[in-house]
Amino acid sequence: MPNIDAAKKWARASEKRRERNLAVKTALKTAYRKAASAPTGDNVKAAASAYDKAAARGIVHKNKANRKKSRLAKRARAAAKR
């Protein structure tokens, strides 16, 4: 445990950020799975939007968000062909 007051505050803030980021990442995974299992336009748009927001906030890397969106779009195109 830190002794310096500022370090104690940093530890508290880091823990809050960690919990918040974990909640967002869990929601992202859920949205991705939902869109991947049923690749309709609404599901894919919702998941892509969620990834864009997370990337803008720095929760996930921009390239990861783009990669996931691309894979979802690919699945949606394949499902539309069937």
Brief characterization of the structure:
By secondary structure, this protein is an all-alpha fold.
Observed structural traits:
mainly alpha, 0% strand, 82 residues, Methane Monooxygenase Hydroxylase, Chain G, domain 1
Q: What fraction of residues sit in β-strands?
A: under 5%
- Shape, per Cα inertia axes: elongated
CATH class: Mainly Alpha
User: How many domains?
Assistant: 1
Let me know the CATH homologous superfamily: Ribosomal protein S20
Q: For the report, how would you describe the main beta sheet?
A: none
Distance between the termini: 58 Å
The total strand number stands at 0
Note down, in words, how this protein is organized.
The chain has 82 residues and is mostly helical. The chain has a single domain (5-81), classed as Methane Monooxygenase Hydroxylase, Chain G, domain 1 (Up-down Bundle), CATH 1.20.58. It is 85% helix and 0% strand. The chain contains three helices and no strands. The chain is elongated and about 65 Å long. The termini are far apart.
Helices and strands in order:
Blueprint lengths: L4 H33 L3 H17 L4 H20 L1
